[in-house]
Amino acid sequence: MTPRPRKPSAETPAPPPPRTPEPDPDPAERRPAPTNAKSTKSAKSARKTPAQKAGRTAKATEAAKAARTAKSPRPARQAAAKTPPKSAPKPRKAPVPAAPVTAVAASPVPEEDRVRLLEGTHHDPHGVLGAHPVPGGTAFRALRPYAKAVAVVAEDLRAELRDDGGGFFSAVLPLDAPPEGYRLRVTYEDAELEIDDAYRFLPSLGDFDLHLIGEGRHEELWKALGAHPMTHQGVTGTRFTVWAPNARGVRVVGGFNFWDGTGFPMRSLGGTGVWELFAPSVGEGELYKFEITRPDGSKTLRADPLARRTETPPANSSVVHASHHEWHDAQWLARRAERPAHEAPFSVYEVHLASWRPGLTYRQLAAQLPAYVSDLGFTHVELMPVAEHPFGGSWGYQVTGFYAPTARLGTPDDFKYLVDALHQAGIGVLMDWVPAHFPRDDWALAEFDGRPLYEHEDPLRAAHPDWGTLEFDYGRKEVRNFLVANASYWCEEFHIDGLRVDAVASMLYLDYSREHGQWTPNVHGGRENLDAVAFLQEMNATVYRRNPGVVTIAEESTAWDGVTRATHHQGPGGFGGLGFGLKWNMGWMHDSLGYVSKEPVHRKHHHHEMTFSMVYAYSENYVLPISHDEVVHGKRSLVSKMPGDWWQQRATHRAYLGFMWAHPGKQLLFMGQEFAQGAEWSEAHGPDWWLLDPAYGAEADHRGVRDLVRDLNTVYRSEGALWQRDTDPGGFAWVEGDAAEDNVFAFLRHDEQGTPLLAVSHFAPVVRHGYRVGVPDEFAAWQEVLNTDEARYGGSDVTHPDPLKPEPVASHGRPASLLLTLPPLATVWLRPVLPPRCA
User: Active site: which residues (predicted)?
Assistant: First the structure.
């Protein structure tokens, strides 16, 4: 993997100064009243009315921006509900019960609890706030800063609580038990609103969920942690849950409480490190973060690690989300498991969504990308990382929101719409997944709760030496659970058909990019990262068990044994396989590109670079990748790597693609290379589509290459010899692998029935007449099915339009042979066209 540049986002400052509440003009949407973090505010400040603060004054706007980086504007509905004009009507008051209940006494919060609640260090706010039985009745306690008065109301109850100062209110009422579903009526200077008491609810996360989290085995972790709109005990709201075992306290802050979490402390649920709060009336679209009090008493605002939606960068708040997408790809999902990926046609078009057609949203891409990919005949698209990331220049490889598609292109449901559209067009969707590292942004995962949590506690193990990022602690069960569940999440919630796992080599080796003394051997004295091995095995086993038809693909650049071997099969090195379905063949990519980049006269000295891949071709299940990494950072585009003039460059480009599609293994081609773009790719402007404009003088040159790619995929999908036995050595046989002086490579591919396809690649800029190639003798004639030198592709049109009859002349160890005319810088495919001769 090429190191990616990054630019950290702005540092998140301290929480903003508190603000006074505003009336809610919409009685149908009651929200909890805002609260104040500092009980020592002067009476003058506390008496400021909501009307004085309505409309977002300059001071309020500045405070909001300080609370979170580059906050994006709220939707119009939310803005209207939270910042009404001075003339907005007050909320409708609930009917007043005819017989008020008089409090027996006050029941103030004990001083120690009071201090901890105000400092945000209380682990059990529900044990103090809310309603609790006491001698003489039931004690009600509330923390509502800025309020003038708080009353408890129910169907037959209205009782005023006493003001204990600092935003606390309490009373003991002569009741054997709190009335079911009681609410709080909170009175401010200019408003009165009725809300459900968040501290009267039982935990909204079950014991079984907590048990699985504690064991590190919650395979649907995204359903337990994060923000979930729900109905709990008959009340609608949002459950907030977060894993922060080192925190002294956690509070929820967001737009619904003006980024002041004093009145929204969360409770700790046992020894799991999970904190929970059910917030009534908080719904979809609300912005939020977690305010965490670190072990040293300092505070930090953090985005939700399990957030399923985020703000658009550079803003970084999490967004409460519930999906409403209705899928229409049942037929695709039912069919995709019919044949394993390594035994199926598998031709991949790699795409960077943000720059494929710059400016398009997920839904706009859904109107164009499926049609384009389908027209070119690719079976799959591979999307460069779509998980949220702060810096676009990282191309998505430095992730901060592992459970959220990037908001740059739309909502999570919009992304589902794109996947759905691709499936309905018959195209599989692969996604780059990055569990190797994460950036150090201090509003994200780095030292999340004040201590190393997601990263390894050993600084030498935590710091990634190449990319300035942090590596995950794969030995910690909760971190491993976070990542394993994340892999399943994309497959199950977004119907992703495959995960290409980035930078696997950096995970597998303790000494990856480290010098002597910068790493510690494992318990066996070796360099293998045993925790990472166990994680990858668990991830693959879980994904394949839960998602039939899904494939995992490793970008692994070393000779690690058993990348695509089953996890329960032990190899000669003593390790079980990693369990991937496919592996990128980085060796083939490096060697073959090295060969074609040489001048033809020098290629004879590098002939082995094109044949060496067959020495290990069946050691793993391979993908042949011409990816984004090969066309950036000074490496030049594919066609620009080729020597010679423009005609020779395009001809070699076409011949190389023909060789690649015929070689054992699956294919992957990065966008722009399908029409021989001459410039390197840039995420800022994407492919040079103008090259295909008919008004451009050289448009035919580029269109010809694209037409070839379409025909390569068409013939490839129809010829089982090119994919059915990709992992079977019996499906391949060299015909001519030593013709270094001629720059010729010829081989046979066989399908499941043994029917062959002959591929001949000629990488010299001359025509070779009467070139004899040995073939099986049981076929009466051979037909050319593809020739990269055809005129319509931009070639010289040296072709074989008529069937070729083999001659009974032995050649290349075979009893018969064909006499071919080899076009310059071209690949030719031929297949038998007549039934086998009768014996």
Answer: 502 (nucleophile), 555 (proton donor)
- Distance between CA 395 and CA 433 in Å, rounded? 12
Beta strands in 699-755 (DSSP E): 732-739, 744-750
The residue assigned the tokens 């719409």 is 417
> d(Cα 682, Cα 352) in Å, to the nearest integer?
10
Q: Is 825 left (phi over 0), alpha (psi -120 to 50) or beta?
A: left
Give the count of beta carbons closer than 10 Å to the beta carbon of residue 73. 8
Backbone angles phi, psi at 223, to 5 degrees: -85, -10
98 or 341, higher pLDDT: 341
Alpha-carbon distance of 553 to 535, in angstroms, equals: 15
Question: CA distances (Å), 241 to each of 117, 203, 204, 464, 492, in order?
Answer: 18, 10, 9, 29, 21
Q: What is the rounded average pLDDT of the residues 5-18?
A: 39
For β-strands 498-501 and 428-433, DSSP reports them as parallel
Each residue of 698-726: b (16+ CB within 10 Å) or e? eeebbbbbbbbbebbbebbbebbbbbbbb
Pure H helices in 98-245: 111-119, 207-215
pLDDT, tens only, 262-283: 999 999 998 899 999 999 999 9
The token duo for 530 is: 């045993």
Contacts of 830 (CB under 8 A, 6+ apart): 757, 758, 760, 782, 783, 784, 785, 800, 804, 818
Beta bridge partners of 666: 623
Task: Classify 443 as helix, strand or coil.
Answer: coil
Residue 371: what are its φ and ψ, rounded to 5°?
Answer: -65, -40
DSSP letters spanning 638-700: HHHHS-SSHHHHHHHHHHHHHHHHHSSSEEEEETTGGGT--SPP-TTT-S-GGGG-TTSTTHH
Token digits of residue 496? 């992703």
Q: End-to-end alpha-carbon separation of the chain, Å?
A: 54
User: Does residue 741 have an active-site annotation?
Assistant: no
Q: What single-letter amino acid sits at 464?
A: H
Nearest to 309, CA basis, from 443, 415, 238 = 415
Q: What are the pLDDT digits (tens) for 559-614?
A: 999 999 998 888 777 778 999 999 999 999 999 999 999 999 999 999 999 999 99
Of the residues 382, 441, 502, 711, only one is catalytic, namely 502
Q: Count the neighbouring beta carbons within 10 Å of the beta carbon of residue 417.
A: 21
Cα(50)–Cα(461) distance, rounded to whole angstroms?
51
CA distance 318 to 285: 9
Distances from the Cα of 154 to the Cαs of 27, 184, 413, 680, 807, in angstroms?
Answer: 17, 9, 39, 68, 99
Q: Is the peptide bond between 314 and the residue preceding it cis, with omega within 30 degrees of 0?
A: yes
355: three-class secondary structure by DSSP: helix
Tokens encoding 653: 């480009």
Side-chain half-sphere exposure of 532, counting CA atoms within 13 A? 24
The single residue of 449, 555, 630, 736 carrying the catalytic annotation is 555
Distance CA 432, CA 121 (A): 39
- Above 60 in pLDDT, residue 44? no
Query: How far is Cα 566 from Cα 574, in angstroms, rounded to an integer?
Result: 13
Q: State how far the Cα of 544 lies from the Cα of 566, in Å rounded to an integer.
A: 11
160 given a catalytic annotation: no
Closest by Cα among 380, 384, 369 to 346: 380
Residue where the block lists tokens 């005023």: 160
- Distance, in Å, from the CA atom of 197 to the CA atom of 195, rounded to the nearest integer, reads 6
